[in-house]
Structure formats: structure tokens, C-alpha cells
Design brief:
The protein is mostly helical. The protein has two domains: about 5-90, no CATH class; about 95-199, no CATH class. It has helices at about 5-20, 30-35, 40-50, 55-60, 65-70, 75-90, 95-105, 110-115, 125-135, 170-185; strands at about 140-145, 165, 190-199. The chain has a three-stranded antiparallel β-sheet. The longest helix has 20 residues, at about 5-20. It starts with a helix and ends with a strand.
Length: about 200
Amino acid sequence: MTLRELKRIRFYLEALADVLFDENHSIIQPKVLESLTREELISIALFLYQTDWTLARLELKTDQELLKIIGDDIGVLLYISAMLHKKTIEVLSFSKTEVDFFFSNKGNPLHYLASKETAIWDEYDRSNYTALLFKAGVIRKVFGVYISSINEGDLYKLTSLPFDCFDTFKEANKELLSIAEYQKLNVKDLVVYQVWIKK
């Protein structure tokens, strides 16, 4: 699925949430209830009420209590929309946790990168790892819009996410003005970089 398709789904989910809010919708659809795991219920409740609840407190709640905290389909839709947005901008991090997870679950645990500390990886190591991820279907190449003070060489070293990502350079360039207006920046303060994101 392309980023444009994911964004389209996200926009429709947000529009549906607005409609449900206007109609004073107050239930969670039975089919949605059947599809949610306990972990997802906790994640949704934590997403909706980060300042009111902690993970430890939510883990003590029953599924029914979690559903009562979540309230209705609107909360579920907002959570799904936020997760779709995160999926469209989640840049590869080269963190030890990420690398360990890949090599233990998808890659070869005996590969030289599996035991090499990520802090000392050079460009060849990062390129090799990226090729392994791409071959495994874990990442895709997109075009991210960043603040211009970020250098291309630092994209994967930073924790700052792009404002948005696009399937093509043309799409990213086309959206620069609207991103600049939304972020209250000058278009010259933005730059488009090719970047790897998680699928």
C-alpha cells in the first residue's frame, strides 16, 4: 500500500470520527470489539488518556473496564488514524533494539552486524543492514519533508521525525507550501530527503 493510500484511509477515518462525534455516537461496533486484543485496548486507552492513566494502572483493568475507558468508536478511530500517521513517518532508527529484533526474528542471527555495536557502524554497515531490511520487505524508500537545518547525513542519527513523507519527490515538493503554512515556516526552511521508513 502506498503512503498516499494510507493517508487517504487516515483522512476518511478522521472524517468518520467527526461525523460520529456530531451524531453523539456512544458505542463501539461489535465487529470492532471482536477484533481488538487486550494489548490493543490498553494501547488505545493509553493513547486517549495519557495524562489520566499509566500503563501499569491500565494493565490491572479488565477488558470491560478498558472498553468503558475508551468509550466509543470515535476513540478507536482516532487511535487507528494516529497509528496510520505514525506508520507513514516512522524512519529507520538503526537502534540496537531495532537491529536485535530484526536479526532474531527475520534475519540471520549469525550475520556480522547482529553482534556488532550499532554505535560503531560505518556507512557500509548501514547500507548493508538497509539492504537486508529492504530484501526482507521491512522498509521502503520514500521522500520526507524536514526542517532545512537537518543535514542529510544525520537523518538516521536524529530522533526528529519528518513533517510528512511521500511516495515520490514530486508529491513531496508539491506539498512543501502547505506544510510550511501549517508549521508556520517559510518554504525555504524546508527540505526534501530520500529516506527509509518502516513498512
